[in-house]
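hiii, so i know i said id send this last week but things got crazy w the move. better late than never?? heres the sequnce for the chain we talked about at the cafe, plus the structure i predicted for it. fair warning i was half asleep when i ran it
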Amino acid sequence: MPAASGSASDAVTVTGEFGEKPTITFTAPLTADTTQRSVSIAGKDAEDVARENDEVTIQFSLYNGTTGAEVTTTDYTEGTEAKFSVNEDVYLVGLIRTIACSTVGSRVVGVIPPSEAFGADGSADLSVAGGESLVFVADIVAIAPGVATGVQQDPVPGMPTVTLADDGAPTITIPDADPPTELKIAVLKKGDGDIVAEGDEVRVQYVGMNWQTKTVFDQSWTKNGPVSFTTDGVVSGFGQALVGQAVGSQVIVVIPPALGYGPSGGNPDAGIGAEDTIVFVIDILGTTPTTSG
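okay and structure toks below
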């Protein structure tokens, strides 16, 4: 997935300290046949690497590689970072190939051709015309796992079965049986991180399936990657599946209508009837206590 270095990315000169807005110079127009990536500053922790579906926090500067103009940048101050999921299906391929496999503390330079950027359409919002390339410089501030990292547990008889793709995305298989009438929760992977408390904001990946129709009605994996919910800001059964679990865990929960969308008359937009049972597989990636008042 990560791009290799080449003459184009090596032609971009970047100066300045990590975490501070860099000075970037190159001779425009600059492009490549495929994304090229060079490391301007190497991070010190070789183990903390951006892998597929991880959430990467960065400060960055983005230039139009054809005109040489800066098109957007973060502020390079705490709290102004951008976050990307390492997922080429969600973000521009060239951006992801630039940050993939980078380590925390690294500054990386990407030269991205139109085919791996905005293509023939361009981006009017960023003043990038169709067929123009990009130059992307990113400081890798932090990396958070995009999948549950806990210890695999034995399956629970009678529960839906789960298989994982190479990138960790779950596929749920519903048994040919009537759904249970009570909430059922099982731990598929047992983490050893912080324990989720009632009211916490929890960062998760998830897949939701309708037991009756055996269709996926929602998931984070094909959207922007990990998302955050408070335990009391989701349907009751989903929240109950989170509380008391350790970060790094993956859980499966079967939610009867009364603890799902039944009280609201179902969720027609998602194809969920008022009497439908729903199933979620949830990767618990982080938790943050919330305060009120």
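btw The CA atoms of residues 266 and 272 lie 5 Å apart. thought thatd interest u
miss u guys!!
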